[in-house]
Every structure is written in C-alpha cells, then in structure tokens.
Amino acid sequence: MFAPSELFDLSQTEHASIFEGSPYAWEALKKIKEYLQRNLKPALHHTLDGRAHIGAQVFIGEGTVVEDGAYIKGPAIIGRNCRVRHNAYIREDVIVGDNCVLGNSCEFKNVFLFNNAQVPHFSYVGDSILGYKAHLGAGATISNLKLIPENIYLEKEGVPFDTGLRKFGALIGDNTDIGCNAVLNPGSIIGRGSVIYPNVSWRGVLPSNMLVKNKCPQAVVVRRPRGVV
Question: Is 159 part of a structural domain of the chain?
Fold first, then answer.
C-alpha cells in the first residue's frame, strides 16, 4: 500500500503529475518545491475577510475565503472554494486542492492536500500528504522528525526500508479520520477509510478500513475532602 494509487484517488487533484515516476507515494514530498517552481503562476482570486499576509509566490483560487490573521508565506497553490481560517500559518511549499479547510491556528509546511481535505483546528501538518476527504480532529498533530538524527524507516516485507527522507510526517489515505489530539509519529501511513480514535499515538503502517482504539484504563475513585484519609 505504498503506491500513490493505493492510498489516493488521483482524479481528486489537479496536481496528480507530481506522483509520476514514483513507485512510493512519499517520494512526492521531495518534488513539491520543484513542482511549485515550474507550475506556480501567482494570482489572487480569493475573498479576504479582515487582514492577512499573503506572499508574492502564492496562487489562490476563486471562491476561497481567507480570514483575518492568516499568514500565507508561499510558495503555495491554494485551490477553489477553500477556507483559510483565522491565524492559519501556511509556510513554504504547500499545495492545496479544492474545497479544503485550513483551520485556525494550524501550521502547514511542505504538504499536499487532495480535494476536500480538512484540518480545522490547532494542528501541525508537516512533510505530509492528506488524501481526498481526509480529516484531522482538533489538536491532531503530525510529527515529521525523529528524535534520533536519522532517516525515516518503514517496515517493508518484514525488513526495515529507508525512505531516504529525514523529514517525513504521514501519508493519510482517502476518507480517513484522525481523532482529536491524536499524534501520528514520523513515517506514519494510514490506509483508506481508516479511523484513529482521539488521543492515540500511532506509529507505522495501518491498512485500509481499520479502527485504532485507545484502551488505556481509567480509575474511578470516591472524591474525599483534602486531608481526609
């Protein structure tokens, strides 16, 4: 499930050519900067609701609304009918499809979002690809850098496989849902239609149509006044 077509509906983006010649979907992360250099034609067709900073190397499509306090540094391509909410921080090398939500106090860097992807509240998304209708719950975070200074490895056919990437967050397949305050550790791959419950810390490859539940035990005790044994 590492091939682009196994995770993503490539008809749900105008930028599918970025995956050409890539047997592994994560290889597109290395191409985002070059793709923008070749294809970005800056133009602003959005509606502005308040004040926002928009850099010189930015394209924003018709029907998109940019709310007060957003900072779009660029280079970036943002599609049609999106919502860039209050205090969103869109850094370098970002490609966003149509009908996407880039939420309040969310940060994006070197990412690719298919159409209808939603990141509505308080998330960090770096060096990652989000598929069609992928959704991150409030506070969900994608970690893109290992604490140990080495490349990101995945398990392929039972053997560690070097992705060649020092920074690699997650590949999140179509129609996935990541619960509130979940953490996706570096090199996470989430198959189509899967759900990760709130507060889960996930690492590795999750097949399609799976549920990941957090079953940490909870203690329920009688509440006593302080000082009473």
Answer: yes
